[in-house]
Structures are given as C-alpha cells and as structure tokens.
Amino acid sequence: MSCHHPWHPIISAQKATVRASFSLSLSNSLNNSPLVSQEIKTIDKLQPKPGPNSCPLTPIDFLERASVVYGDCPSIMYNDTIHTWSETHRRCLKLASSIVSLGIKKGDVVSVLAPNVPAMCELHFAVPMAGAILNTINLHLDTTAVLCNLLQHSESKLIFVDSQFASLVQEAISIFPSNLKPPTLVLIKDEYYGNCANDYYGYVDYEKMVENGDSGFKWVSPKSEWEPITLNYTSGTTSSPKGVLHSHRGAFLICLNLLLDWSVPRQPVFLWTLPMFHANGWSYTWSLAAMGGTNVCLRRVEAPSIYKAIERYNITHMCGAPVVLNMLTNHPCKKQLESPVHIMTAGAPPPAAVLGRAESLGFIVSHGYGLTETGGPVVTCAWKQEWDHLSLLEKAKLKARQGVKTVGFAGVDVVDADSGVAVTRDGLTTGEIVLRGGSLMLGYLKDPEGTSKCMRDGWFYTGDVGVMHPDGYLEVKDRSKDVIICGGENLSSVEVEAVLYSHPAVNEAAVVAQPNRYWGETPCAFVTLKKDSVEKLSEKKIREFCKAKLPLYMVPRMVVFKEELPKTSTGKIQKFLLREMAKDLRRS
C-alpha cells in the first residue's frame, strides 16, 4: 500500500482493545516520497468496509446541505459584498477544481495568509474539497525568516495571500534554499483595502481561479475520517510554535459540539472578531454552514468597527479573546446594545470585572476553554438556573470559571503532573489540566516526541494549571510556566491580575515572575491605564490597592506602567517577553 500523505497512523492493541494513536512525520527526501509501514497496513485492515453506515465524517458536508436548505440566504457579508449559500457552494466547487488543476494532490498542504475576508471563509471548504490539508497562517509572525521556516516545515505546495501581505511572502520565498521548490502563489485582492491595483509578478489571481473553475467538480471526499483536514501552528505565546494536525472526524465533532453547547439557533448572524487563522476560528468557519448562518467579515478588529457592524448587520453572535471584551468595555465609543449579542470568550482566563462590564452593556457572555490542539472550546461554564438571582458581580465570578466538559467531549480533570492521580476537588489544590475527546489533534507534525509527551495514559496533558471546585467546575489558574514560586509558595499570576483589573483605572494587566535573590521569584506587574482615567496612579497606589485584597506574598513587588502590552494576534499577552523585561528591571 502506498501513501502520499505526510503522516502515518500507528495502531497498538492493549488488553484486546484497539487504540489508534498517531505518530507524525514527513519524508526526508525532497520529492516527498511516502513512508510505507506495517502500521499503515494494519489500520487499513481495521477500517470498516465501505457501506451506507460507514461514511467518513467531515464538516465539508455542511456546505452541500446549506446550499439546498439555505440556498437563497446570505452566507457571507463584507461591506457591500453579499453571497448566498448556493453561490458560496458553487464558488467553493470551482475554486477546489482550480486548486487541483494547479497540480495539488491529495494530502498536500495548502497555506493561507489573509485576514477575515470572504476568501478565508471559502478556502476553509475549498481546500479540503480539493483533498488538500488547509494551513491558515498567523498574520503577525515575527519575521520573514519565521514565515519561511513555517512554509518549509509544512512543505506547503500552494499559498493564498491577501494583497496586504504579498510583499512579506515574496521576501520569505526569496530566502528559500535553492534546492527547495517554493509554493505556488495566489493573490487575494480586496477592493476595500488599498494597494490592490498593483501587479504582483508570479501570482495567480484568486477571482480568476473561481471564475475559470468547474462548478460541476466532484469534490475529493476523504476515504477515512482520520485523514488530516487542517494543519494549525500554535499561536506563539512561546517562541516555538508547533504544527497541530486535525482530522476530518475531529473537525466534524467539534463543530456539532460547539453548536449544541452554545445553543446556536438556525441562521445566526456571526461577526468575525476572532481570527479565522486561529484554530480555524474555533471551527465556526465550518459549523455556521450547518445552521445556515451569516458570516459577517471584519478585516480589522477595532471597537468602533465592531459596534458599527453590530448595528448595521443585527449581529447575534461573535467570539473573541478577553482582550476583545476589554476593548469593547473600555473604548470611549462603547454603547448599550439595542439587542443582546451572544459572545463566546476563551483563550485566557477573563477577569470577573471585565465580564461584569461586558454584560452590563448587553453582551451575553459565555466562557470556554480550549487549545489549538482541541480545535475550539471543549470546556464551558454551563449556566445553572439557581445562579440567576445572584448579583452581577457574583455571576461574573462564576462565569470566570472555565466550567465542565462540553456535551460532545469525553473528559476533563485536574491531576498531579507526576503521578497522574486526580487532585482533591476543593477549589484550592492545583494540578495539571488533562483532556480527552474526539476533537483532540492527531498529533504534532514531525514531532513524535512532543506528541507522546503530551498524549499519554489516555489523556492530553495541557500544561495548564487549574483547580477543580467541589461542584465539578474547572478553574484555570495559570500556565505551568507562568506560575510564580515565591518563598516556596505557588502563586497564581491570574489571581493577581484579576485584582488589578478590578481597579477602575486599569485597562490591562499582566503579572510575571521576577528573579529575587532572597525569595527566588516575586510577582512583577505590567499595567496599562484607561485613556479617560482621571486618577494619577503610582506604583505605591497600585501596591496599596493589592494589599487590601491579597495576601502580602501575592502583592506585586514591582509595578511597571506601559503604553501597551505585547500580544499575539489572537489577543494573548506575550508573557515570555514580559519576563525578559522583568529580569532587566529587577531590583537588588
């Protein structure tokens, strides 16, 4: 049996139970010749025989159904551009056929570097429909060298590029090794963004690919639902992003899981404030098709444009990191919403004060927890009716907890990292958060050691630190690398940040470990202030505020005021950069 894919499955049997795990590698030869192994033959024998009850699960099926059920309903809105679901289905078929005509084969990686524009919605369907693996790239990579390395690591054969980033890609490709063939370039022109009239040498035109494609194209359905559908690189709060492979099956399951857990109704109007390149927009890029929803694209995520879009399009749902909530509640243009807007936040533990302010404006906030490796939130703070009578602040504190596993996920627990034994459910005892379920990644590309390190004993070890409350609700306390050990005491930076956010003049806050000769580490706070704040804050005032609410050992020993905190493109504060700053600023 031959295999074109840059991955191969490994099957092992334990106590008469067959478990499928995945070790990922690419051929080390330049012509991408396949690695054939006994394991591939084994899994082939274990696959169910083709039949009416063994169709591979894939979210691509959502598009075909949407074209029938919601054919004349809007699928994509972007300024004055409006597409219906039947048009989107037809455009994706034509685009997929053109991708294949460029020589892309099943299992090849196709990259995309673009903001939240209509092409990003279409490519989430068209690339898998061509049998390829979709790789959406972070728009805020540090250097062209990083982009160059990523394209080489993924062995990308084709890259779709928004005109804003065309020169960046050209620079990255210019430093490719001479013995490697760079990916074919396709230009996405956006009439609402300047610089579109320029001719870029060597680029294929996106709209011409759609125009010249075959609307009768028979899209390439996966033979196995375990085949990869996406390759996502982790967002970069550390300096070494990993390539996360997800299967058609996992993407299908997370889509239905999120729709059910968030109670998404038919035909929601969804505003894209979450980057589609980040974990494929938590898989809502596909799941909205299942409900015939409208994708309202937003090129730049800014408070004025968000409020304008909410009013213009009658937005019902949106997603974003806590930084988006903070932006909306602190901006001078903030306003009371005429109709409620459901917003799912995840990516970092949101301070209760920020959640409270958002809900007071009319946002209905749902809080989730997930990682790139899970394809989207798999733990959410399921609301209980008995909490309805609580005050706004008490509700916000409960919503700040991550919650319980979603309906379609298998399990979540907090365990001792060394023994794997579950910690006491007292809301105090910390441990590492572990997960298991169908939407978990296949593994890390070309990193079997990293894959086996985090996926062991039937669990995925997240590297996050949390507690389990007596009622079974999870609360994330920190990333393991962000825990501060002060005089032998483990200190949660998240808890200190929550206190800082409760100060009326504080806009953003981040707390990191600062080396100390006596205590080992002490908390160092980096703070930005609200622009309309009239109070003149000092380091002393911030420390006094914290002393009134925290044990002394948790009070920041140093407070640094900044104009802006360094963030990833998804809104996560880059604490590894702040830790370096804290080292340079440390006091003797």
UniProtKB/TrEMBL annotation:
GO terms for biological process: phenylpropanoid metabolic process. CDD domains: ttLC_FACS_AEE21_like (cd12118). Residues 64-445 form the AMP-dependent synthetase/ligase domain. Pathway: Phytoalexin biosynthesis; 3,4',5-trihydroxystilbene biosynthesis; 3,4',5-trihydroxystilbene from trans-4-coumarate: step 1/2. Residues 495-572 form the AMP-binding enzyme C-terminal domain. Transmembrane segments: none annotated. GO terms for molecular function: (E)-caffeate-CoA ligase activity. The keyword Membrane does not apply. Gene3D superfamilies: 3.30.300.30, N-terminal domain of ligase-like. Keywords: Ligase, Phenylpropanoid metabolism. It holds the Pfam family AMP-binding. Belongs to the ATP-dependent AMP-binding enzyme family. This is Acyl-CoA synthetase.
